[in-house]
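Q: How would the structure tokens look for this protein?
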Amino acid sequence: MRIAFVMLMPMIIGILFNRLDIGVLASSGALVAGIGDNPGTIKIKLYTQSIGAVFYFLVVLISQLLLPYTSHVVSFGLWVTFSGFFFSLLFIYGSRAVSISTSALLCIVYACSFQSHDIFTNTLAMMSGVVFYGIVSLGLWRIQPYRVIEQKLSENIKQLGEYTDLLYHYFLIKSNSPEKKQKLNDILIKIFEKQEKIHATHEDIRENLFRLRINAKSFSAKGRRMTLIFSALIDLYEQLISLNIQDDKLIYSLEKSGLKQDFTTGLLNMRLILDGINWSINLHKKVTITIDTSLLTKFKEHILNIENGSVACRDVNVHALKHVRFIFRSFYKQTQIIKSIINGNFSNEKTTYEDLQLEKFTQEYNYNFTTLKANLNLRSNIFRHALRVSMAILLSYFICIALEIKYFSWVYLTIILILKPVYGNTKNYAIQRLQGTAAGAVITLLLLLLTQNVYVITFLTVICIVGAYSFIPINYKVGVAFVTIFVILLIFLEHQGSDNWINIYHRLGGTAIAVIIAFILSFLFLPTWEYKILPTLISKLLNYNLNYFKKLTFNLQHEDKLSDTEVKLARKDVLLGTSNLSSSFQRIISEPSLSKDYKSDIYNIQTLINLLSTRISALRTYTFTSQKNTITETDNRLIQLIEQTLTNCISLIQNRNPGEESNWLEEEFNLNLNNQSLNTYQLKEIYILSQQIYNYVKKLKEFHEWKNSQFEFSL
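A: Here is the predicted structure in token form.
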């Protein structure tokens, strides 16, 4: 809405003064600045927007000086090639740099489409739009500094509800139709994808909320409440991922104990509670939904009946049932805290989480030359990507010159948007962009056949701008369709009387040429194959899990506890590593020339590591919520074996000699299962998983794809 507003106002003013051409130029500048803007504190926004404005000014000015109609055909080709390399290389500085770099490259597209050859007027008009956007963006931040954070919190709660819904459908299929393995795998992949999105939202909230709190001289009550809600959401998410619906013993026990229906009802109830909280935050209303905990009583009665023998349930894992009840209880507790905070009657809001050292949870950006210099080699993924982008731009430029193709700007635009650092991402974006562009072109043609009224077209353009930037983060294909519509409509407004069919033809032709070039170069020119960094990702994630496990067990074994900051930092690393591995897996399975068995085993080890993380998270849930945590000699022995096994896994991956393999002797663990504590039960499950992961690592090392992996590859 903000981008649509700052684009609409210059066009309206241009229409009023009969200078729509100037209005469209200013709108273009506002769009460029909007794309380059990221949420953050006012200091960060002012800094990044100022740097961005300097880049936009230089790119627009130099591009016009070297445009082909000035007889600088070769010079312009070298300029766009250099720009592609330089701004793609800036990706090493993080997401803010990516946004500014993309906007700067977009300025070249606009420079190529300027109708007037008046360099001063074009530059001034476009920069006025950049400045106008900056004033509106910073002004709105001053009025509502927490609005973006509210939206992100609401988005996170919505994602948690969708995650719970996926757990529900996975459980139903696995319990009713276990033979549908492909469908189960599809849902499990969606679960991994949802974990990745949840973590990305967490990072956005940390960057905005924690930095706002760190930089503020005094933190408002609203900001404090948001910090409490976010902290509770992290704990709630950890409890959700501790719900091991992939555990066959859990599903069997729920069915045999007669608790299957209550379990599914509990999952649906979770979704309803999260939806209610989500809408309350969005609409600034009190939470009215009732958090019904009667399910806990049913679970407790069933478990007691099984334990005392009044209900005959053969081979039922009582600990699995206790674990489910524990997770439900923790979920209700956290949602009740969130409800109390939103409704303004949470009495502990001034003390809860106040000991966290927030600055340790935010990302430090090093915008220095040393970082750039360290990436100027072929080991750097971003450096290879920058070379690939520049080569694609140079190749497309000379193809367009040789074949006298007049829509190079469309080819260039598509290349800078779909060519990604890894092959898998390039493939996905290219396919979706082709589909979205074709759909948008057809819709635009129909619109222009129906009407060419300037006011109607302006209104439709605004609608499509809102649609584009609403859908791009959610559904890229639909977002691209909206982008295609509003871009062609903008060209129509700026070049009234031009052939609309030609504009659509140029858009489709440019997209097709760019997709072909991007595919060829991503496959042949310094390709970056995701599978080559898989061992590094697995090693990092196992190391994060081991570190988290050590901190949790330290608190179990010692009265002198580690600080909450240390434990939660370790947890953050686990969530980050899980997200990275999940997103990497999605790209790996789309890469050619990988054996089917290798892909299958990658999927299996990812599932096992995900289960390991959930088991460790469950262990924290027990230690965090229980007042008394007793630890036995059996527990100490299990902790030692788990640490030894995970350490051996990491050594094996890193081509170091692993230590002596840990062996669990059954006679060491001859206790009655039902007499064990939840801690002992969970530790035994973690040990079994760690052994399975170790065996899979040994198997994966025999694949030629694993042997060809580059352990020194820069992430």
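The longest helix spans residues 181-215.

The chain is about 75% helix and 0% strand.

Upvote if useful.
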